[in-house]
Amino acid sequence: MRRYGLVALGTAGLLALSACAGEGAGSGDGGEGGGESQAPEDVLVGVAMPTQTSERWIADGEAVEAGLTEAGYEVDLQFGNDDIPTQAQQIDQMITSGADLLIIGAIDGTALTSQLEAAAAQDIPVISYDRLIRDSEDVDFYVTFDNEQVGVQQATSLLVGLGILNEDGSEGDAEGPFNIELFAGSLDDNNAHFFWQGAIDTLQPYFDDGTLTVPSGQTDIEQAATLRWQQETAQRRMEDLLTSTYSDGTELHGVLSPYDGLSRGIITALQNDGMGPSLEEGLPVVSGQDAEIASVALIDQGVQFATIFKDTRKLADQAVVTAEAYLAGEEPEANDTETYDNGVQVVPSYLLDSDIVYADNIESLLIESEYWSADEVASGVAE
């Protein structure tokens, strides 16, 4: 069973809440504090998450809510259901209802300018959660993973699956040439660009020396993009690629996929075309991201090759720690103040590390950490 316990909050952070200074959020001209400190139970934190179509975002929302609730806050958690106007309305309502701080996982990182302006007018800090909110000076902080490194890991897992590299990063025995196809995320998600850049930078030397080729010729992110990260969209594109490029018997060896939902759609298209059904039986190597339980089960079964594990419990905890700092009138800790330029400003950020999951380290990375249980891995269903 998934655990949502805090791993980063300490006694000092909780004491800071009870000593919240008058300069913090909720105590300025637009807040109810009137310059006086507020007890945690009098503080409202709005949490806006993009969708419930991905188990990852459901888990994020629940983990952030659990951490904030444990710290004593009132929490308004809303999911935007992949609809930009819905999320905008939800955030408007949070502000109207007196939110003292906002944590936002944006559907479209460019579509919330007016909401952020309204928050700034009421001295409400805004924490951008995992997806950078762009084109606004009213984003106060960003908590995320090292997204370019995630892209590096996605590409690395593909190279390992093809035998070009070994899991320890050393050179493998396979020489190629190998035919691969490239998938990217949704262009309105800033992270998709970081994932793509990290992956392409990693693969480029192998394109240059002929070890890797993309027979479809679709090598630009605009060609590879998948709107809203939809599994069905990825499946249709893979089906189209198989028809247009591989119907003459050209062999496909691997697919760069930046998210497990896309990976499962891609795998379905490949299997429906007669490939596989497993890696041992000729299924192309497919990468992934987010360690969704359905894909972890496929990795365990030898169907999907790899995924990237971003421990969202730690991300949620970091969001809570950052919220605590703002609500105590303090500056949150940042470990990156250079990378994440949102088009108007460089947003101070806290970056977390991620890991590549292969079949042989599911136990050590996912089960021993209690992210997923052995029963969940066996069934492919979260309990």
UniProtKB/TrEMBL annotation:
One of its GO terms (cellular component) is outer membrane-bounded periplasmic space. Keywords: Signal. GO terms for molecular function: carbohydrate binding. Its main location: other. Residues 1-21 form the signal peptide. Residues 45-331 form the Periplasmic binding protein domain. It is found in: Cell envelope. This is Monosaccharide ABC transporter substrate-binding protein, CUT2 family. It comes from Ruania alba. The lineage of its organism: Bacteria, Bacillati, Actinomycetota, Actinomycetes, Micrococcales.
